[in-house]
Amino acid sequence: MADQRVLITGSAGIVGTLMRPRLRRDGRVLRLLDLAPQAAAEPGEAVELRTGSVTDAEAMAAACEGVDAVIHLGGHSRENSWEATLEVNINGTHTVLEAARAAGVSRVILASSNHAAGFRRNDEAGEAGLPADSSPRPDTYYGVSKAAIEALGSLYHSRFGMDVIVVRIGSCFETPLPLGPRGLTTWLSPDDGARLFEACLGAPSPGYRLVWGVSDNTRRIYSLAEAEALGYKSLDDAEVYAAQLADRPLPTGIAAEYVGGPFCTAPLGEFN
Ligand code: 15L
């Protein structure tokens, strides 16, 4: 049987770098696309390195050739100017989806963010957690761009029958420590991140789905039910880091009340 070929955009970014070793599988080739330099292939590592921008239609058309699925992580991962956010995150995602459609790629996984729903109140989350399909309440231009790509993904599913899974990622870092106490709520461990992407790649005929990307943290406020319905099972809990964060100041005011935390008060349009 031919190898499965998975294109990862933004593969040199934080999440891409964490996923590269974790999404390695026999029978799978990872095609890794980024503008930034990437580590050379390790011996035996089945990767195809591509340099290019998600806003470049020609580069994306070439990157999507012969691909079975796309994991689209590329784009600005924090607040930026409106123009840059529009161009890279929204136009870039449109370019990726269009290239995937034209190449006959049947499955696209889009990295959204908790900041698409950043102005939802933490206390909205009931026992099961905030539902993954809560309508957008962005906290930044960045959050608006993530809400827009959720809508684009839905459009490409409805119009072209593509399977599109959108993951509203909490905070995917090696540990929750750089994030402070909020990370005990929002952390998606890298291993759980890989489990979630595997579930997204493997779920039979998912159609359009919107799921939270979070570990089963003791202090979790996002629902896991939607990701679990795809076959995801979290094995990590940020709480194991709680003692190391005990001395760090707790968020206060708006940052404490809303899902987006400090993004809710970050100056709009300013790179941070
Ligand atoms: C995000 O969407 C960012 O990409 C990431 O850098 C983190 O700041 C994360 O949200 C978060 O909310 O912690």
TrEMBL record:
Residues 6-170 form the NAD-dependent epimerase/dehydratase domain. Keywords: NAD, Oxidoreductase. This is NAD-dependent epimerase/dehydratase family protein. It comes from the Bacteria. The keyword 4Fe-4S does not apply. The keyword Hydrolase does not apply. Pfam families: Epimerase.
